[in-house]
Design a protein that fits this description.
By secondary structure, the protein is an alpha+beta fold. The protein has a domain at about 10-65. The chain has two helices and two strands. Strands 1-2 form a two-stranded antiparallel ribbon. The chain is elongated. It starts with 14 loop residues before the first helix and ends in a 6-residue tail after the last helix.
């Protein structure tokens, strides 16, 4: 069973959308012309969560390695 004490669940905040848009702008400078989406609990208005802004980036398979290097260059956590 997971240790739920290490997670902090919070009420929804309208700041989540602002934070996502800020990160999306940063990403666009590094990897333009890709689809960048806000996903996870913070992307759903009214739903609480862990205050982590999850971002999905859609890119062609032949560009994945190139984009991963660029993202790691800006110290973005890539999963």
């Amino acid at each position: 069973m997971a240790d739920l004490k290490k997670f902090s669940f919070n009420k929804y905040s309208y700041k989540y959308k602002q934070l996502f848009n800020r990160e999306k702008s940063k990403l666009r400078k590094v990897i333009p012309n890709v689809k960048i989406e806000h996903v996870g609990s913070t992307s759903i208005s009214g739903l609480g969560g862990k205050c982590i802004i999850d971002i999905a980036i859609r890119t062609p398979k032949n560009k994945v390695d190139q984009f991963l290097k660029k993202l790691q260059g800006i110290r973005l956590q890539v999963y």
